[in-house]
Amino acid sequence: xxxxxxxxxxxxxxxxxxxxxxxxxxxxxxxxxxxxxxxxxxxxxxxxxxxxxxxxxxxxxx
Length: 62
Description:
two-stranded parallel ribbon; alpha+beta; 13% strand
């Protein structure tokens, strides 16, 4: 299924949507929860209305 279609279905036990990059502890909890179940996807740059808003690339650390 295309990523845009998955986003439009909203969050589920295997899909987490975040508008901005979560803080270290929050992102770690999400990843651990996915690893303890059936896996999942964390998509950053999607708001609560399921619109793709992107992220501020100056906030991303390489």
